[in-house]
Amino acid sequence: MKRTLAAGLLAVALGCSHESAGPNQSSITATSLAPHLDSLKFISEAVRLAATSRTSSDTTAGIYRWRVSDTTVLSGTLVAPDTFVAFARAEGSAVVRVFELGGTRDSAVIVVRQQTAQVRVTPLLAYRACPVGLTAVAVDSGGTPVAHHVSVTLVSRAPARATIDSTFLLSPRAAGLDTIVATAEGVSTPNVFRIDAAPVFQVGNTPFSTIVIGATQLAVLTPRAMTTTGAPLTLHFQSSDSAVARLPVAAVAVPLGYQVPPGTDVDGLVPGTALVRVTACDVLSDSVTLRVTTPKFLLSAIPSGARTDDRPSRVEVDIGDSLGAFGSTFAPLTVHVSATDTAVIHPDSAYIHVPARTYATASVLTWASHGTARVVFADSAGRYPPDTSGPVSVSFPPLYLSVVRDTIALGMRQRRSIDLGVDRTVTGAPLVVHVAVNDTTALIESPATLTMPVGSTGGPPLVFTGRDTSGVATIIATAYRHEPTAVTVRVTRPQFGVGAPVSGIPHYPGEPPGDVVVGAGDSLDALSYSGAGAPIENVTADIVSSNPSIASLDSTTLTIPAGQGPSGTAHLSFNAPGNVTITATDPRSAYYHYGTATSATVVIVPKRLVFSDSVMLLGIGQFWSDAVFLEGRIPTDLVVSLSHTASAVATLDHPIDTLFSTGPSGPVALHGLAAGVDTVVATASGWLPDTLPVRVGPGTVVLWGWPSALRQGDSAQVSLQVDDQAGEGRLADVATTFTLAPNGNIVFTSASGVIGTITVAAKNQGTGYFYVKAVAPGTGTVNITNASYQPYSNSVSVMP
């Protein structure tokens, strides 16, 4: 008996033995297998093989081993001690053998030959006017394709709708349903076949009805269907003017299941306009206007200036249409690159190439020498208008002198040095700089040649010296392939400068002496004490005070050593209040003697104590600190006595203050006690006193953050600050509590809830934050009171 067994229920035996046990193997005389021959007609069809053993008197059970000769054709499993089920795996034949343990055996031949049960045809859909190749597959009853060659014929029952040739190419003629009869090995299978109109494809560039490209450039059309295709079809492309727009591929096959087929190129040949139509089978799907314009080069920025030591510059050369949009070329493009002066700008290659289907290439420009040139890009075939860069000014790297002006001054018989350098590190070889002066009558320079080592940005300093006559000379520095630099030196009569103790702070009689120095300069420039413009010989100046009784010098001369800017130091003693100046003169009569100089005025004032404020305002119960100070320097700390005239009005923290020499000022801490006027007096031995009126009265308060309007239910963050009578901030001397009296439209709250008072802590200027909350529409008002302060009131508009 044969039947189909599910593969999941079979334990497949591929060449393995199966044994079953019997009670008396030694008496078995023969074993037979049934059936001995069978044929299977589809894959997975099964046959049951039964083994029977005999003794001399009867049948009996045995112990069996089973084998299959070709497991690619058959597989099997033992389902009972004497039963083996084999099923078909592939066409062919195989022998199933059974071996009984006592030595008896038998075999059966199983032939697998598939028999066609039906013929399947694909696809079952075609689009009208688009031929489609059909595939026919014969399958057995299990649905497995028949392995041996099967001759299949296909016939359309409605030839008016579709015809099929011998190669199974179906030509759909009209929309509708057809039946294709597939016949193989005497089995005919009808297959329902549908023919539809092809779907509509939109050009992928929609919603743009016009595509703009440059001549020699391409656009890619990407038609798109609303859904995926149900059958293969062909898209046809047609240009209304093939001289303007060319389609390298006029038809594109769209495989089954596509919604967006591969893109199709359209080449712009010459400027003009053409209409490109897209047809799917026999359905005109869409069209797009292709406007071909004169192409143009699109250049990346070329600098307007460069230096010969700059790195080569990479210039990207793109191509585009007349609107400036990038466009890829459909054929290789050769661009000729040239410079109007190749001695100034040198392209790395005379020709650069834009490969097909790209839009970019690049040229590398080297800045060869000093001058101005333009870079020209031209199409070797003449289709692109040439494009020229703006003028590029190429310069040599500059030499620099360490001066901030192009003209400097120098006194006669003075020497000055300046640095000569470059702004980039010297590379390759040392840089030799030649230095020359155009007029040696007034000026000489040295050395004539400077060398900047590799890796440096400068060399030895340039030194020049004024001679015994005045004049103007120019120093010029030059080097190979470098921009020269120059400075004009005006040689004039030398000039003294006097430095006196003028710091903006008055001096007192008896304070430590101040320093006086004399410097060497010229008649045009300010003094320099850095060594520039130093004399080449010792120069002695006579110095004198304009009034020795007010301030006197401890020396009558000062000498500026050769090669130095300033002289040594003389000391000026401060003797009495008044103003003095110090004058320096050169006693020599030579033409190059130094011009006389006078210092700025030195001010000496009487010794006086000074309060910071002219009047101190304080609220009752408030604290603030003034300061007493000196307007000059003092050699040692100064003890100042503080007193006041009305101790019931205000009080001082301490009656003594010390002004330290390092910063002569000290605090004067005051406490307001009662309304009235007090006067604080500061005195010190040897110093004029000063007085500070202190006016004490009711203080004022202010609410910071007070809003002009609030909505009902909203809150605003506020804080209270204590001030003096005039509204200047002060500190509460002790913890001070204020009563808050709002009307029914507002309340005051804190973290603990509604509050009716608020306290300023001792030595604080204000409270922390609290809140005003709007509770009812109308005008909210508040009165804030304290016995020592002026009443405060404010209002806020509360909106519903």
Describe this structure in words.
This protein is mainly beta. Helices cover 0% and strands 54% of the residues. The protein has no helices and 81 strands. Strands 1, 2, 4, 5, 7 and 8 form a six-stranded antiparallel β-sheet that branches. Strands 21-29-28-24-26 form a five-stranded mixed β-sheet, with no helix packed on it. A hairpin with a 4-residue loop joins strand 16 (162-164) and strand 17 (169-172). The two termini are 98 Å apart. Residues 1-24 have low confidence and may be disordered.
SSE inventory with pairings:
Layout: E1 2-4, E2 28-34, E3 37-40, E4 45-55, E5 59-60, E6 64-68, E7 74-80, E8 83-88, E9 92-100, E10 105-112, E11 118-122, E12 125-127, E13 132-133, E14 135-139, E15 152-156, E16 162-164, E17 169-172, E18 176-184, E19 187-196, E20 201-202, E21 210-214, E22 218-221, E23 224-225, E24 233-239, E25 245-246, E26 251-254, E27 264-268, E28 272-280, E29 283-293, E30 296-299, E31 305-307, E32 313-320, E33 333-339, E34 345-347, E35 351-354, E36 360-367, E37 371-373, E38 375-379, E39 387-388, E40 392-395, E41 399-401, E42 407-411, E43 414-418, E44 420-422, E45 431-437, E46 443-446, E47 449-452, E48 462-466, E49 471-479, E50 485-492, E51 494-499, E52 514-522, E53 534-535, E54 539-545, E55 551-553, E56 557-560, E57 570-574, E58 578-580, E59 582-585, E60 597-598, E61 602-604, E62 610-611, E63 616-619, E64 622-629, E65 638-644, E66 650-652, E67 656-659, E68 665-672, E69 676-684, E70 687-697, E71 700-704, E72 709-711, E73 715-723, E74 731-732, E75 736-742, E76 746-750, E77 753-755, E78 757-760, E79 770-774, E80 778-786, ...
Parallel strand pairs: 3-10, 12-19, 21-29, 31-40, 42-50, 63-70, 72-81
Antiparallel strand pairs: 1-4, 2-4, 4-5, 4-8, 6-9, 7-8, 9-10, 11-14, 13-17, 15-18, 16-17, 18-19, 20-23, 22-27, 24-26, 24-28, 25-27, 28-29, 30-32, 32-36, 33-35, 33-38, 34-36, 37-40, 38-39, 41-44, 43-48, 43-53, 45-47, 45-49, 46-48, 49-50, 51-52, 52-57, 54-56, 54-59, 55-57, 58-61, 59-60, 62-64, ...
